[in-house]
Amino acid sequence: MRADARKNRDHLLAVAGAVIAEQGVDASLRDIARKADVGLATLLRHFLTREALLEALLHTSFEQLTARAGALETSGSPEDALVSWLRDCVAWTTEYRGVTVLMAAAIEDTESALHASCVTLRAAGTRLLTRAQATGTARTDIDGTDLFALIAALAWLGDQPSLAPRADHLFDVVASAILAK
């Protein structure tokens, strides 16, 4: 990619990140283009679909969360690793309102631009869960799909103004329910 094209793409991603953080994943592509001082056609030339834009925007975060899970697999107790990664995922999902709905849909849609990243992220969480289950520190009646759903539920709580002040407490309740007693 030419340097000027890379610069334009990076600028579009920076603006899109700010707009989506403020308005959620359903933010208008026209608004993103306008705030980036480009036409909608320019935005669509770089990112053919909303999902392509979101995948480009979220790709680094997905990689970081996946790498974090890998690092946690070999350090600390399985219980602490699982809870730490779960907390990181929930914190990240609250940055972009509505992202968990897209992620849940992308898991099932192999044609989605987000599919591979979401499947990889779920697999990373599943490995942490399985490790904790193998040591008897996590419930054995849940799987990676359940863990992914709990992340979405906790993110939803953080998006609700009346529940946001209780989000940390509710995270602790859910995390303790995942862990075996």
Please give a structural write-up.
With 181 residues, this protein is mainly α. Helix content is 73%, strand content 0%. It contains nine helices and no strands. The longest helix has 24 residues. The mean pLDDT is 91.
Order of helix and strand elements from N to C terminus: HHHHHHHHH
- End-to-end C-alpha gap: 53 Å
Contiguous helical run count: 9
* Average pLDDT figure: 91
Shape: elongated
- Structural class, by secondary structure, is mainly alpha
Could you describe the largest sheet, including whether it forms a barrel?
none
The percent range for strand residues is under 5%
How much helix, percentage-wise, in residues? over 70%
How many individual β-strands?
A: 0
Radius of gyration: 18 Å
Q: Flag low-confidence runs.
A: none
